[in-house]
Amino acid sequence: MGAVLGICSAAQLACCCGSAACSLCCSACPSCKNSTSSRIMYAIMMLLGTVVACIMLSPGLKSALQKVPFCNSGDATQVLQLDCTDVVGYLAVYRLCFAMSLFFFVMALLMIGVKSSKDPRAGIQNGFWALKFLVLIGAIIGAFFIPRGEFGQVWMYFGMIGGFLFILIQLVLIIDFAHSWAEAWVDKYEETESRGWYCALLFFTFLHYALAITAVILFFIFYTTTESCALHKFFISFNLILCFIISIMSILPKIQNSQPRSGLLQASVITLYTMYLTWSAMTNTAEKECKPDWNTLIEGNEPTEAPQSEKPAFDGESIASLVIWFCCVLYSSLRSASNSQASRLTMSDKVLLKDDASGSGDPESGDGHHVWDNEEDGVAYSWSFFHTMFGLATLYVMMTLTNWFTPNSDLTTLSSNMAAVWVKIVSSWICLLLYLWTLVAPIILSNRDFS
């Protein structure tokens, strides 16, 4: 799929928007399954929304908008114009994501119970792209006319809940990825008996643990510099102990008997991700003495106080979180339904009736350069669940962009929010518990088949 996106131009991508659009385009577009092309378009819709949200948080945007006629800069006499403060900053991101999440949740409600593309609602899911983009744009514009009042505070709570639910989905994806990766390479080793696969398993296991141990050392050096950083010491030590426990449990004889392919590669992936979440949480602490001043460390400058007029900015943690977020969205939306990981996430293993990988085009037309319907006998994924997941993803990116920011706080606390600290630390503990459950579940529930 990455290769397909790489060779598609803007005109070719339009061919993957639906059968009607494809008929108007050149024949150079690679063949696309209807289920795949629709998920690509929704992923692009999400990506564009994320880019716009990032622009809304760009420093200097407010002063630039003061030169634009539609912005009244807070002048109450210009009632037909927008206030600049409504289209920049965290509140603007809230409004944008409110409209986007509403769009996806409405789509989820409309798609409940769809079993195949023969359903009249299939046209809404797989077509009318221009109309859907116009509806979304109209909803976004309308959201900016919502009175301020308590909107930001109330919507922040919805964002916290929805974002945390998406984190759970993300954790399931990562754990499933770790298991699937190890199982695939172990199968390759057993089939070929090649030492190359065995060395690859050892190399990446060692690499993950080496990176995790290095991270722990750096954490103690840079994030526990004073006696007041006891909470950081607890986070690092406690998560390190938990990671050691799951690593030992993954190779216990009883675990190995129930899951022969369980091993240290999966545990190393979970350990490294846990260390990332630990670092991500500590960067959000409000205690400035408990996190490094990178300007001082890199350039040798003296520490300086942040100016009171500081604009919302993106730190390394925010960018890394966004990359992981969008990779997970692409992973869940672009993988074919035959893939076991995406199938379990979107429940397509329960509803898929047709071989999603058979054929390269419509057998009646003899032409493979177009979008063909592969869901006449049964949908390749749960359309309703798919949109629900994207709605939650919208709330997650909203909270990530604003660093789980509380609207009533000052903008200088964007990267200093204890709510974000605990969300991420609790996420790391849930990740470890979920992985531990995958190890012990076959033993506890011995009458169930976990293959």
What is the overall number of helices?
A: 19
Distance N to C terminus: 27 Å
The tally of strands reads 2
Which strand-content bin applies to the residues?
Answer: under 5%
Measured as a percent range, the helix fraction is 55-70%
Give the rounded overall mean pLDDT: 74
Which descriptor suits the 3D outline?
globular
Radius of gyration: 24 Å
Q: If you had to describe this structure to a student in words, what would you say it looks like?
A:
This protein has helices spanning 2-7, 10-14, 19-23, 34-56, 61-65, 89-110, 122-126, 129-143, 151-192, 195-222, 230-249, 253-258, 264-282, 294-299, 316-334, 340-346, 348-351, 383-401, 418-444, and strands spanning 32-33, 371-372. With 451 residues, it is mostly helical. Strands 1-2 form a two-stranded parallel ribbon. Helix 4 (34-56) runs parallel beside helix 18 (383-401), helix 9 runs antiparallel to helix 10 and helix 10 runs parallel beside helix 13 (264-282). The chain starts with a helix and ends in a 7-residue tail after the last helix.
Tags for this model:
451 residues; mainly alpha; two-stranded parallel sheet; disordered N terminus
Give a quick precis of the structure.
Helices cover 63% and strands 1% of the residues. The protein has 451 residues and is mostly helical.
How are the secondary structure elements laid out?
Layout (H helix, E strand, L loop, with lengths): L1 H6 L2 H5 L4 H5 L8 E2 H23 L4 H5 L23 H22 L11 H5 L2 H15 L7 H42 L2 H28 L7 H20 L3 H6 L5 H19 L11 H6 L16 H19 L5 H7 L1 H4 L19 E2 L10 H19 L16 H27 L7
Parallel strand pairs: 1-2
